[in-house]
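Running co-folding for 6-O-phosphono-beta-D-glucopyranose.
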Amino acid sequence: MALNDFDLVLFGGSGDLAMRKLLPAMYARELASALPATARIVCVGRHEWSTEEFLATVDATARPHVKNFQTEVWQRFVQRIVYVPLNATESASYQALVAALRHDPHITRVYYLATPPHLFAKICDNLAANGLATANSRVVLEKPLGRDLASARQINAEVGKVFSESQIYRIDHYLGKETVQNLLALRFGNILFEPLWRREYISDVQITIAEKLGVGNRLGYYDTSGALRDMLQNHLLQLLCIVAMEPPASIAPDAVRDEKLQVLRSLRRFTPTTLAQNIVRGQYRAGHVDGQAVPGYREEPDAPAHSRTETFVAMKAEIDTWRWAGVPFYLRTGKRMAASLAEIVVRFKQIPHSIFPQPTNTFQNNCLVIRLQPDEGLKLNLMAKTPGDSMRLKPAELELDFRETFKAPRMEAYERLLFDVLRGQLTLFMRGDELEAAWDWVEPILHHWEQDESAPIPYTSGTWGPAASSALIGRDGLQWREEALPED
Ligand code: BG6
């Protein structure tokens, strides 16, 4: 589908996200010849720069993040960029933006708010006050989308005064990842899985997003956030929704988002007692990652010496529906872990009866592993007969490597999501009620931790988190996938 002509306005246009992700993503669209000839990118920031000065920064800061750099394409790309200095909280300064934009109702206008969330309302008000919140406009909201239910509601209400829900694009970049969309394809493009995708056949589900990285230079933000807000409330819950939702009637935005919302609303709420039993929080200490010594969280530059911010969370969640009653969903995320990976593991139940001789045959549960990163693909563990004269079964793997199978260039998450915003496709964005339902569910945990004097459990950098995380799943007679894998 050819894109309509557009003006893309980046608030926070000189910021880290614009330089690392958004401008490189737009360059990738340029490289794919997917941008209308006259489409423009209007970067808005506080510095009093000319467009020329700004482009020098783009060259130095954004260009190193571009993939497949081609001089000619880059030159064509930067010609689209205009810089407008603006104080986001001052209505009068928006006149510069009024002057920079094209006022044609047929041109799509996108305001991408890559700013701290406390500015969202002010920016929307000022856009409206200056006649810029037009019917052909869309607004994109970057995370963090609040820090609790009240602040998320406030964002929704204030942005909602200016833009209708169908104009609001709330980003969760995990939904832009190819493999997440492939999960939709797997579940709803095949007859195989759906009959088995339920409590009668599935024993448990594990969802892990692990990072080797520490907090880096984001401590100021991270220390007031922590892993629950930073990763679990959004990325992990979105993955859980896609695994657990009922089949939507179509891929239309509200068909999909209605079903995701039902999952969020069916998550069993934690009480102080169940929470203490089913959630482990940790904080990394010094250790080694890839053979390099790394400092502990509290030794990171500017870290409070007694910070109680969690850098790791593991939990056992349950979904109270007919389909999922009694099936544990183990969720886990952490920084400074042993590996960087994101994966979903669906473990099926044991066969009801073995016709094969025991004890030569021990059965492993069939297991579907959906790998989001680093290598995108699927693995299905099956039992197969080993060659020879006896009936001896062993686990074997069916593997689908997406990069091997589909050689076509892939879109990075931000490229895909920006493209969807520009073409008005809302399916991969969170609706306001979804956002609130996710906060509503995590809020008792946040409250409990605020009141609880104890600190997160320390774990050594370069490991899989505190031993209590293995104990959490071990209590149910299970293991995290990497613990269950045979040693190489
Ligand atoms: C972001 C978090 O949303 O996701 C970061 O704020 C985290 O803390 C990042 O590092 C992980 O994303 P990805 O795509 O690298 O797995």
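Result summary
The chain has a mean pLDDT of 95.
The two ends are 47 Å apart (CA to CA).
Job closed.
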